[in-house]
Write a structure and sequence with these properties.
Elements lengths: L23 H8 L5 E2 L3 E7 L16 E5 L8 H17 L5 E7 L14 H30 L1
Parallel strand pairs: 3-4
Antiparallel strand pairs: 1-2, 2-4
Helix pairs in contact: 2-3
């Protein structure tokens, strides 16, 4: 695992990606904790930097590190799973979480009766709107609430 800094934007104008969590031990450690923020379809688990002393299995550097868990149970079609992951990476790059290790988990899929196409614009907008709310609005509120209770 390399440096935790976000790589510079490519010349194409694309948004830079956050470094990814890749090791099973990282996911297991982060998912063992209760979700910090939840929406209708997603749960966001995380451990903020600096790591607690017992977190020796986490990546080096403050991050933010991002891991995604999008199972077949929540999104049957690979096209849909890939759409969700692309939207999650894009939103996390635009509104990065604070330094730490974060895992975004799909906990429930979208109904195929409402979104019959595997990768429709409507589904893309719905996923992006929910992720924006979760990462931009809900997570900072939850973290502020946790810091106040620590005082």
């Amino acid at each position: 695992m390399g440096a935790a800094a976000v790589s510079p934007a490519p010349a194409s104008g694309a948004v830079p990606r956050l470094p990814s969590l890749r090791r099973r031990a990282h996911f297991e450690r982060i998912l063992a904790a209760a979700p910090l923020a939840q929406s209708e379809h997603f749960a966001l688990h995380g451990i903020a930097w600096p790591w607690p002393p017992e977190a020796e299995t986490l990546p080096r550097g403050p991050g933010p590190w991002l891991g995604l868990v999008v199972s077949r149970r929540g999104a049957r079609r690979a096209v849909t799973r890939n759409l969700i992951k692309r939207q999650a990476r894009a939103v996390a790059a635009l509104h990065p979480p604070p330094p730490g290790a974060w895992v975004l988990r799909l906990k429930r899929g979208w109904p195929t009766s409402e979104f019959p196409s595997a990768a429709s614009r409507a589904l893309r907008r719905a996923v992006r709107a929910e992720l924006m709310w979760l990462l931009r609005d809900r997570l900072p509120q939850r973290l502020a609430g946790l810091k106040e209770t620590d005082r």
